[in-house]
Amino acid sequence: xxxxxxxxxxxxxxxxxxxxxxxxxxxxxxxxxxxxxxxxxxxxxxxxxxxxxxxxxxxxxxxxxxxxxxxxxxxxxxxxxxxxxxxxxxxxxxxxxxxxxxxxxxxxxxxxxxxxxxxxxxxxxxxxxxxxxxxxxxxxxxxxxxxxxxxxxxxxxxxxxxxxxxxxxxxxxxxxxxxxxxxxxxxxxxxxxxxxxxxxxxxxxxxxxxxxxxxxxxxxxxxxxxxxxxxxxxxxxxxxxxxxxxxxxxxxxxxxxxxxxxxxxxxx
Length: 268
Prior knowledge:
The chain has helices spanning 18-30, 33-53, 76-106, 109-113, 121-150, 158-182, 186-204, 215-221, 225-238, 244-264. By secondary structure, it is mainly alpha-helical. It has one domain. The protein is elongated, with a radius of gyration of 21 Å.
């Protein structure tokens, strides 16, 4: 009779081999051309496409805008940038991450990892690191492209912009991990992610950014993680003061969804 022995994890050694796991998963992840494109390149492509394809996007806005408004003399493409940065976070957090974990769960990878000496949480940390790192690269590239192509003005409150971006990462990846904890099939993850992602884009102002966004959409959008991130970065870029409500909204999304994701996460 054959006996199957489950390796026992030794205390303190659970993260041994994590560096190798991270390198392997990074190489494998980079073979997925669509994830790399949408994570790294797409925000810059969107900025260039919108800036040059739509007339008037590079002209300062003065007509119908009070001179004391934060938007006065700002170009529409500049007002578009905070929304693009918020979108860059949400694309990988809500669309890519759940599909990755659903694929692992469907193929039994997570279940097999849970029986090895390596902590099974290592695969989660690895892919969170990969996706967040890719988000940072994509956002940095979009900023460089925006500056070179359109001469985007520097934010009036860099600290607010950075804080909003960090909270956006925390809240949207918490949402992505919550979806990841529940879905068992890649097709389901893709469907659920899309159903969540596109309304978030709409409420964040991807089609109606900055000063042309209707008040009703702005009032609703601020209670979503992507909309809150976009509006907080708007304030940090062009306004003054601390956008308390968007910051609180993103903090609440994180505080609620992250513990739920941890509690509900299934290995098989």
